[in-house]
Design a protein that fits this description.
Layout lengths: L1 H21 L7 E2 L5 E2 L2 E2 L7 E3 L2 E3 L2 H8 L1 E6 L4 E8 L2 H9 L3 E6 L7 E4 L2 E5 L8 E4 L2 E4 L7 E5 L2 E2 L3 E3 L5 E4 L5 E6 L2 E6 L1
Antiparallel strand pairs: 1-4, 2-3, 4-5, 6-7, 8-18, 9-10, 10-16, 11-12, 12-13, 13-14, 15-16, 17-18
């Protein structure tokens, strides 16, 4: 008799566990094996897209940023707030990097240096590093992280984003790249605006 009661209790316990598992909120998801494009560019979010029940799901923040929409977490009210104004990806990146240091160095005339001219700060091209200087034909660009490429020279002539110093070297206007300079003696700190 004890074995029968033990069997009934064990069976009842197993049935309850299986029933509660079957009614749980678990979903089966697969990582998407296809590309997603936003405005003609491949979408690459921080989190991979997943497929659940034949539908594709993307992380809200990744998707919103790709579309230029602001997303906020309101911790006080415990809710996500999606902005009504659209910003470009470069504007969103600009906000994310604002105030961060792009580069710190000791300046020495003739190599890396920053100079104030008519209220604007200009930096020698070498300040940006060889990896951030791009050439396409006779056009020269400064291409720093989190900013759009900036045309600074065509052939030997500067653009509206640059000037030539007294030695004929190209000096890039920092504000054109969304950067600002702080000079303390020989020390220079260049920050994202």
């Amino acid at each position: 008799m004890k074995k029968v009661i033990l069997g009934i209790l064990l069976g009842f316990t197993m049935a309850m566990a299986f029933t509660s598992f079957a009614n749980s909120d678990f979903l089966t998801a697969q990582i998407a094996t296809f590309d997603i494009e936003v405005s003609g560019e491949k979408f690459e979010g921080e989190n991979p897209p997943v497929v659940i029940g034949g539908r594709t799901y993307l992380a809200l923040r990744d998707t919103a940023e790709a579309l230029g929409i602001e997303v906020y977490w309101n911790g006080d009210e415990r809710k996500v707030e999606i902005g009504k104004t659209k910003k470009t990806v470069s504007e969103l990146k600009s906000t994310a990097t604002q105030g961060k240091v792009f580069r710190e160095f000791k300046q020495s005339r003739g190599t890396e240096y920053v100079e104030e001219i008519d209220g604007e700060y200009y930096a020698s091209a070498s300040v940006f590093g060889q990896n951030n200087i791009k050439r396409e034909g006779d056009k020269w660009y400064i291409n720093i992280p989190d900013r759009s490429p900036l045309l600074v020279k065509v052939g030997t002539e500067p653009t509206e984003n640059s000037i030539k110093d007294i030695l004929g070297n190209t000096m890039v206007k920092l504000s054109s790249l969304g950067l600002e300079a702080e000079i303390q003696g020989d020390n220079v700190i260049i920050r994202y605006k």
